[in-house]
Amino acid sequence: MPPIPAPRDAGTTTTTDVPLYWVRYGVAGAPPLLVLHGGPGAHHDYLLPQMLALGSADGGRDLLLYDQRGGGQSKTDALEVITWKTQVQDLARVIAEFSLGTPTIVGYSWGALLALLYAAEAARDKSLPSPRALVLVDPAPISRKFRDVFEREFAKRQNGPVIARQREELNASGLRGRDPDAHRQRTFELSVAGYFADPTSARDLTPFRVMARVQQSVWESMGEYDLAADGRLASIRAATLITHGRQDPIPLASSEECARVMKARLVVLEQCGHVPYVEQPAALFSAVETFLREQRVAGG
After folding, report:
1. In angstroms, rounded to a whole number, what is the distance separating the alpha carbons of residues 49 and 183?
2. Distance in angstroms (rounded) separating the CA atoms of residues 252 and 256
């Protein structure tokens, strides 16, 4: 597992309904970049250290990440129902608290969908600052239809022969008794191997935990959603880059439709599943850096 460096700064928000844990990496005073983790119900640090590459290139950037409500160090004992609207409201307050203005947002998986939901709300509610630019890395499905396809494909992969064989090898290895921590690490990696183009490459990952209650409540709040059909995607005016792994269990058609409606740039990453910052980091960061550099030039 790669080591995660200590953040430059860290703390908790003061303007959200519950404190949200945040960290800053990169270069203080450089252009800010807000990075949203996936889930829902997960936490920021599984994106690290690989995503820290965004803070060191092209003169440096000031990276801000936070644990979304209900996950990581933003867990709450309250029995509140956390919905997509809760997460959008929290995101709006984070943007205001850190004086991000019209932010540039990088969202991964659910974090990319959260960025879209926020941008659509900002298009409707003029009191919210609209994002200047969006980078959507393997975004979660933009409709319930595409989410159903993803769920079937992921289950198929997790129950397929390659991962089954790896589970058998782990069970026969005796690792549980020799090194319980290493066994837990390997068990985690096999639980997410179906996200990879090559399941055998799911190694040396930063583990994470998804809070099932939060995940369930957020997805239930989405209902039979379709961000293309209901006009939300078309309302967004931010310059947008979408990257999507060719072998991602989330169907490429979801990102293709998103790009078509938003007139966004779509970069398809070959030999890549849902974890491009591990599987194809050079291709991912090259595409993202090119886009962000263009946005910086366009913004003067």
Report:
1. 22
2. 6
Q: Do residues 243 and 138 touch, judged by C-beta distance below 8 A? A: yes
Domain spans, the chain: 9-146+209-298, 152-201
User: 12-30, pLDDT tens digit by residue?
Assistant: 999 999 999 999 999 999 9
For residue 179, report the phi and psi dihedrals to the nearest 5 degrees.
-150, 85
Q: Measured between alpha carbons, how far is residue 295 from residues 101, 169, 266 in Å?
A: 15, 48, 16
Cis peptide before 139 (omega within 30 of 0): no
Q: What's residue 122's pLDDT?
A: 98
User: What is the DSSP-derived secondary structure letter of residue 68?
Assistant: P
> CB–CB of 101/129 below 8 Å?
yes
Helix (H) or strand (E) run with residue 115 in it: helix 110-124
* Whole-Å CA distances, 206 to 36, 157, 275: 16, 21, 12
**What fold characterizes domain 9-146+209-298?**
Rossmann fold (3.40.50)
- Segment 105-117 shows an average pLDDT of 98
CA distance 17 to 117: 19
Residue 269 in 3-state DSSP? Answer: strand
Contact 83, 249 (CB under 8 A): no
